[in-house]
Amino acid sequence: MTIPLKLNGKTIDVNAEPDTPLLWVLRGELHHNGTKFGCGMALCGACTVHLDGEPVRACVMPLAAVGDRAVTTIEGLQGPEADALRQAWIDLDVVQCGYCQSGQLMSAAALLKSKPQPTDADIDNAMSGNLCRCGTYPRVRAAIHQAAKKTM
After folding, report:
1. Count of domains observed in the chain
2. What element of type H or E holds 120?
3. CA 94 → CA 51, 66, 81, 114, distances in Å?
4. Average pLDDT of the chain to the nearest whole number
5. Residue 87 belongs to domain with CATH number
6. pLDDT digits (tens, 9 = 90+) for 27-46
7. Does the pLDDT value for residue 152 go beyond 90?
8. d(CA 81, CA 33)
């Protein structure tokens, strides 16, 4: 079945069943491999993408539930928040193994878009669904604060 999908600013047709998880479409059909498969149950955050600017877990989002809303993956993440976050991630050496980082960045970008000057509690709340096996949480928090200062 051919289904239109608004992805990273373009509308494309995907060949998939409506109940196919968005993650499978992104990785398998479209080869957008920045969005990771972690748990398959929306518990780890590795598959986080934006749906009309809000972070969602692509592993449990059926393609039919996307509808005509815009999907943004790490490959399409743009804007001052994204730029500031990427630079902060580099400056503070946030990444260790890197597997969770695309999901971390997607959640952090949504946070800064909605709360340009988040508190530690705001960051902890927004990032609580993103697990990092390497334990880089203090660096993630520091990087979000640094990015927030640069986007003021």
Report:
1. 2
2. helix 120-127
3. 25, 31, 16, 22
4. 97
5. 1.10.150.120
6. 999 999 999 999 999 999 99
7. no
8. 22
